[in-house]
Amino acid sequence: MPGSLRLTRAQLAVVLEHARACAPEEACGVLAGDKNGSVRHVFTMNNSAGSSTFYLMDSREQFRVFDQIEKEGLELVAIFHSHPHSPAFPSGRDTELAFYTDSLYLIVSLMDNKSDCRVFKIVDGKVEEVEMIIVDRQQTE
After folding, report:
1. Which residue blocks in 40-110 are alpha helix, DSSP H?
2. Are 120 and 90 in contact, with CB atoms under 8 Å apart?
3. What residues does 47 pair with on adjacent strands?
4. Is residue 25 within 8 Å of residue 47, measured between CB atoms?
5. pTM higher than 0.70, yes or no?
């Protein structure tokens, strides 16, 4: 699991735009990239739960995204979702349902008409914040 999440301003803008477009429901998606945590592709997804308090990725859409990640030789770097009315911190449900222990979790809060983003490792119910690094462009390996 990467020790930080590295994404471009443009990639973060896609995440924020998706979160705002889905409000008042939670938005969700996947960030794919390399094993060091550098994002190469943002996949916005539908919240099939249609809820403002939790998200559920559509299983068929999730399968297609994970298949594309594998075909492109990328890694699952992070799962992202929004909290339209609460802080950018994992809820009890978020912690309980954090099944991808090798993935980071990016949470976007839209509370008070502001955008706050934080990144976490969630393993065995333990939540640890990690650094989010915003760059102008990703370096290629």
Report:
1. 59-71, 92-96
2. yes
3. 57
4. yes
5. yes
pLDDT of residue 140: 61
**Contact between residue 77 and residue 105 where contact means Cβ atoms under 8 Å apart:** no
Domains observed in the chain? 4-135 (3.40.140.10)
Which residue from 135, 120, 141 is spatially nearest to 13, judged by alpha carbons?
Answer: 135
For the stretch 86-124, pLDDT in tens is 999 999 999 998 999 899 999 999 998 888 999 999 999
**Amino acid (one-letter) located at 73:** G
Residues comprising the chain, all counted: 141
Tell me the C-alpha distance between 97 and 35, whole Å: 22
Residues 6+ apart with CB under 8 A from 10: none
Rounded mean pLDDT of 131-141?
Answer: 82
